[in-house]
Design goal:
Blueprint (H helix, E strand, L loop, with lengths): L1 H23 L5 H44 L14 H15 L6 E9 L2 E13 L10 E13 L2 E9 L7 H18 L7 E8 L7 H4 L4 E2 L33 E2 L45 E4 L2 H9 L9 H12 L4 H9 L24 E9 L6 E4 L9 E6 L8 E10 L4 E5 L13 E3 L4 E3 L23 E3 L2 H5 L4 H14 L3 H15 E5 L1 H17 L3 E7 L3 H10 L4 H4 E4 L5 H13 L6
Parallel strand pairs: 4-5, 4-9, 6-7, 9-18, 18-19
Antiparallel strand pairs: 1-2, 2-3, 5-8, 10-17, 11-12, 12-13, 12-16, 13-14, 14-15
Helix pairs in contact: 2-3, 4-6, 4-15, 7-12, 10-11
Length: about 600
Amino acid sequence: MFMKKKAFEDLSVRLSRQMQRFTLEEHGSIGAVMVFFFFLMILLGGIAVDVMRFETQRVAVQNTLDRATLAVANMNSALRTDDVYTTREARARFIVADYFRKAGLPDNLAYVRLDDGMNYRVVEARADVLSHNIFMNLMNIPTLEAVNTSVAEQKITDIEIMLVLDVSGSMAGAKINNLRVAAADFIDQVKATDDENRISIGVIPYNAQVNLGDELRARYNISDLHGVRHSNCVELPIGTDRDNIFQTLALSTSLEMPLMTAADTENSSANTDSYFNWRNSNQATLENNAAKRWCNPSTTTEITLPTKSITRAKAGIQALQASGNTSILLGMRWATALLDPAARDVYDSLIFRRVMDDDMDGRPFAYNSASSVDEDALKVIVLMTDGEHVAHNRIADGYKTGPATIRFSYRPNGARTDSTDTATIWRSTAGEWSVFFESKVGSNVCNSKPFWVPSTGSWQNRPLGLTDTGCFNPTRVVRPADPAYIATWQEVWASVRMNYAVLQFFARPLGANNQTNRTNVYNGVRKILYTSYADAATMNRRLASNCDAARNAGILVYGIAFQAPDAGKAAIQSCTSTPASTYYFDVTETAKIQDAFRLIATNLSQLKLTQ
C-alpha cells in the first residue's frame, strides 16, 4: 500500500514539473502567429486583386460609354432610319451598342435613350458592371457591382438656312407656282418652332446667273460697272481644276471680279444689207427676259438677304419668276459665301446701310464642325433644280465697259488670208450711230471716208453729228460739248442687241452686198465679243468641289431634283449630305415638290408630339 502511494506521489511530482516546464517554455510559439498573419495577408491581397479587377472593368465600361454617347450626341452625325432601324432612337442604340461590341463589352450595355429636336440632341445611356470575386467570395462577398451612366448633350441655338432655288425657264408655269407654295410653307414650318427667333433664312434664286441686288453687289470689289440698275450678276472666275474659288467657302471682298454685262446676247437680228432702226423692236431693241439677257434687270431674281423675318423671306419667294438658263454651281457658290463666317463684315455693312435687320448682327456664325460638339450654330443649304448645267457665253472682258473699240479679223470672200481691222463706235447726241474703221483711211487722208453711218448706209469723213469740214482730219479734237462722241460698250449693250450691233455696225459696211462676206465679218467680230464661260463638265466639277467644301465644314446640304434630267439628278445627289435617304429628294411629280420641302422641314425640326 505504501509502495502504491509512493509511486503515485512520484508520478504527480513528475507531471507537475513537466507542466511547469511546458508553461515556462517559449520556443516554437511564433509559428502559430505567423500562420494567422499569413492567412490575413493573403485575404487582404485577394481583396485588392478583386477590387482592381472590378475597377478595370468599370473604367473600361465608362470610357466606352462616354465615347459612344458623345459620338451620337454630335449633331453632325446622321441618325438615319431604314427598314431595320425605323426610328432615330433605334439607330442611336445601334451606334452605342456597336461601340460596346468593338470594345468587347457587348453584355454590359443596359439602355440608350435619345431626345433630340431641330437644334439639340441629348443621349443618355447606362451600362452595368458585374465582377465575380475570387478572394472576397471567401468572406461571403461573391460579386462587386456598379451602375455606369453617361449623358451627352449638344444644343445648337442658332440656325442659318439658305434656299437655293432654280428659276430657269423650264420652271415656268405650274412648277414655279408649286415652288412658291412649297418654299413658303417650309418657311412657316421651320419658323413655327423658333420661339427665340434664332433661325435666319435667305433665298438665292438662280438661272444662268445670280442677281445679287445693288446693295450686296456694292460690298464686293466689282469691276466693269455698267450702271444698269437691278442687273448685278458677278462673273465668278471659273479658274483651273487646281486653283479656283469653288474649292473654298469664303469669298474675298477684295478679289476683283467683273460684273456681267446686261446685254441681250441671244435675240437675233436679220443678216441683211438692209438697215433697221436701232429702235426697231423686232430687230434691235432689248428684250426684258433672262432667256435673252443672262442678267436681266429685275428685282424678281435678286437675292433675298438672310433674315429672321417670315414676311421678308416669303416676299422673296413670292416674287420669283422663271426665265433663263441653268447654272447650279453659281447658286451654290453664293450660298456658301453668305454662310461663311468671313461674310460677317458684309453683313455688318448691310446692317449699317439698313438693308439688313439689326438682329442679324454677329452672323454668319462660326462653323459647327463635325469634329466638335461644343459649337452653337447649324448651317443648312436646300439646293433645288429642275435642270442641268448648260454651257453659255458671255460678253468678253475688254468689251463690257469703256470706249467701244474692237480689233478683229475676218476672211473676205474668196481671199486666202484674213483681214484685220480696228473699229470704234461713235454716237451723236441725238442718239444715232456711226462707226470708224481704221482700214478705210486711205493714202489720201483728206479724201478718206472712214466713218460708216448705218442709218444712211453711206461712208463719210466725220462721225454723224459733227459738221462737215470737207476733209477727214484724224487729229480733230472732239470736245465734250460737241454733238458726237465715242460711245462706250455699256452704252451699246444698254441700247441694242449684240447681234444687231455686230450686223449693222460691222458686217453691213464690210460685207457690202455679199452675204458670205457679211457672215464672215459677223463671225469674226462675234467670236471676239462673245466668249464661253465654262462647259457643262467643268461646271459640274466646280459644283462638286464647292459641295465637298461645304460638307467638310459641317454645312448640311439637302438636295431636291425636281423632275430633273439624269445629269441634274446626279449633280444634286452628289452634292448633298449623307445618307441620301435623309438629304436627297427625287421629285417626279410637279405637286410633290411640297412634300419634299415639308419632309426637309420636319427633318430639321423633329417636332415631338409627346413629352
